[in-house]
Amino acid sequence: MALRRKKGYQFSDEVMSKDALISLIFGFVALVIIVFSITFSIIKKGNVPDFIGALLLACIVMDINSFIFGFLSFRDSDGGILGKRASIIVAVLDAVLLLAIYLI
Q1: Over the stretch 1-24, which tens digit does the pLDDT of each residue have?
Q2: Dihedral (C-alpha) 94, 96, 99, 103: value to the nearest 10 degrees?
Q3: Residue closest to 17 by CA, chosen among 86, 60, 74
Q4: Closest Cα to residue 31, out of 103, 95, 100, 86?
């Protein structure tokens, strides 16, 4: 009986694909800015300066780029699947937090 080989396994020399790394960087920077803006808003009791809104608009752009690079990383054969999934999870977390801020 021949051993069946699963199609989901890939072997690569790279630890993480470049697209997933870019997506993680954009996602974590956006997450830090979101957390900073929320804590700053709590400290100032809602009286925040205008640059916080500009930072959140930049977070929206970074989150969109994080989604794009995260989905493009699945096409790349380099890197493991864990970094690719983590980049998408961080992008979704950013989107949920931004949507919650918008709705509140």
Answers
A1: 555 655 666 566 667 888 999 999
A2: -140
A3: 74
A4: 95
Q: What 3-state class would DSSP assign to 17?
A: coil
CA quadruple 65, 61, 29, 44: dihedral, nearest 10? -160
DSSP 3-state of 37: helix
The answer to whether 98 and 34 have CB atoms below 8 angstroms apart is: yes
DSSP assignment of 38-58 equals HHHHHHTTT---HHHHHHHHH
C-alpha–C-alpha distance, residues 15 and 37, integer Å: 33
Say how far apart CA 62 and CA 5 lie, in whole Å. Answer: 39
pTM of the model: 0.81
Kindly tell me if the per-residue pLDDT of 62 is higher than 90. Answer: yes
Residue 59: the pLDDT is 95
Q: Which amino acid is at 82?
A: L
What is the sign, positive or negative, of the torsion defined by CA atoms of 91, 74, 72, 17?
A: positive
